[in-house]
Amino acid sequence: MTKETTQISPLFLGIEGGGTRMVALLADARGKLVRRIERGPSNLRLLSDAELLKRFAELAHALPRPSAIGIALAGAREERDWNRVAMLAR
Hints:
The chain is an alpha+beta fold. About 35% of the residues lie in helices and about 30% in strands.
């Protein structure tokens, strides 16, 4: 992927995390997979803020900045959990 490609086509990042791993998929506006990354377990109830922030930082360093992000983590059950994830993802 070239720098020009990321400027022409918006990119979208989907992150799904559970008890065994976190999978991040970066796709273009047509739904074409650009990159897939797997990291360690990411159940929100089992990670400290520092651990979750580290997971997000690893993705931020490995991928171009997306136009939008969707995140689903096991253990995120209520509004305070969603707010925690949103704050750390910023």
